[in-house]
Each structure stands twice: as C-alpha cells, then as structure tokens.
Amino acid sequence: MVTLAVNRGHPDGIRPGGVRVKICGLTQPEHVDAAVGAGAAYLGFVFFPKSPRHVSVAAARALALEAPVGVAKVGLLVDATDDEIAAVLAQVPLDMLQLHGHESPERVAEVRTRFGLPVMKAVGVAVEADLERLPAYEAVADQILVDAKAPKDAVLPGGNGLAFDWRLIAGRNWAKPWMLAGGLTPGNVAEAVRLTGARQVDVSSGVESAPGVKDGAKIRAFVTAARA
C-alpha cells in the first residue's frame, strides 16, 4: 500500500488553518497553479467522459506533473473497470483514487488491493438513512467523501452544485478520515465547517465561472473561507 504524502512539515498532516481543501475537476494549468498557490491539499482530476470537467489521460498527466510534492493528486472515476483504472495509472502519477459511482464495498476493497493506492469512496447523502451505508465503506476505504446525493435523473454522480442538510452529520465521528462535499462555495464553506466539524472539504462547481471552467479568484476565496 502506498502511503499518501500530504502536507509535509505539519505533524498532523494538515496545513495552517486546520482544514484541508480539495479542488476537484481541474482542467487547466493556471487553475492547478491557483489551487496550489492558495494552499489546497488535494487536486482532483475527473476521468468521466460525461462530465464537463473530464480530462484526457494525457492532459491529466501534464497537469499532475505541475503539482509539487506534498500536494495529493486524486483521480476521480465512476464505476470504472480494472482496465480503465490501469490505463489512467499507467500515465498519470496519482496519489489516491476517488470512486464516485455505485461501487460496492467489495469493489472498493478490490480496487484498493489491486492498485496499491489509497481509495476515497463517495457516499451520497440526502436523508439520515443514507448514512447507514457509511460503515460498510469505512471498513474498506481509506477515506470517505460525504457528498450530496445526486437526483435520480442526474447525469453526474457529483459536481451538481447541490448541498444536503449539514445538520445530519453534525457531531458525528467516524474512524476513517472523511471529507465534506456538495454545494460548497466561498460563501457557505465556513458555516459548513462550523456545523459539521469537517476537517476536509471538497469543491468543484462552487469555484467555477461556468460548468467545467474554474475561477482562480474563487479558488483562493474558497480556501481562505474554509480556514476562517
């Protein structure tokens, strides 16, 4: 198992400000630079053709090579086959895989074992009953992404700009590291962190000027607000 090297120099692995930020759906070098410059701990690259944030393997490789050591590069995949994952990893130097589809706990464990990388599993939440799915994934994943559940007719499993009721997870403690996602923006992330106690947050559409087009100023504002 590969050890995820993040935020070297800080004993708890968390950069100053106490909250780690993931900027997901990066497609352009200038936005990678903006995320790194703002202090993001994770950079997310989407390998899902239906997403406006989808990047080719070649483009993702170039972007990942721009990132300095200590900033984790995460590949987001949706119900991907072993061959599809292998094709990405053959070219892109990723530190973590994010499984954002309907992968079962057994599939998560299989991917983690086969590819030797930490795995983050996204779990969609709309109502309290959805949280009952977390323990099974917590047993096999390295991290859990607690995201807003996508509508049944949605094309994308995430990145829809939707939030869920953060009070559902207020005061909850999980054994594995977890990350909050879903409808976060520079304007609401501080409140989300306050209500949930999240130590990690993930944003995609909330720092865009248009679908799939990141905004450097919004990225910087988001990171600042998350640590406020």
TrEMBL record:
<keyword id="KW-0413">Isomerase</keyword>
<dbReference type="InterPro" id="IPR044643">
    <property type="entry name" value="TrpF_fam"/>
</dbReference>
<keyword id="KW-0028">Amino-acid biosynthesis</keyword>
<protein>
    <recommendedName>
        <fullName>N-(5'-phosphoribosyl)anthranilate isomerase</fullName>
        <ecNumber>5.3.1.24</ecNumber>
    </recommendedName>
</protein>
<comment type="similarity">
    <text>Belongs to the TrpF family.</text>
</comment>
<dbReference type="InterPro" id="IPR011060">
    <property type="entry name" value="RibuloseP-bd_barrel"/>
</dbReference>
<dbReference type="GO" id="GO:0004640">
    <property type="term" value="F:phosphoribosylanthranilate isomerase activity"/>
</dbReference>
<comment type="pathway">
    <text>Amino-acid biosynthesis; L-tryptophan biosynthesis; L-tryptophan from chorismate: step 3/5.</text>
</comment>
<dbReference type="Pfam" id="PF00697">
    <property type="entry name" value="PRAI"/>
</dbReference>
<dbReference type="InterPro" id="IPR001240">
    <property type="entry name" value="PRAI_dom"/>
</dbReference>
<dbReference type="GO" id="GO:0000162">
    <property type="term" value="P:L-tryptophan biosynthetic process"/>
</dbReference>
<keyword id="KW-0822">Tryptophan biosynthesis</keyword>
<feature type="domain" description="N-(5'phosphoribosyl) anthranilate isomerase (PRAI)">
    <location>
        <begin position="21"/>
        <end position="224"/>
    </location>
</feature>
<dbReference type="InterPro" id="IPR013785">
    <property type="entry name" value="Aldolase_TIM"/>
</dbReference>
<keyword id="KW-0057">Aromatic amino acid biosynthesis</keyword>
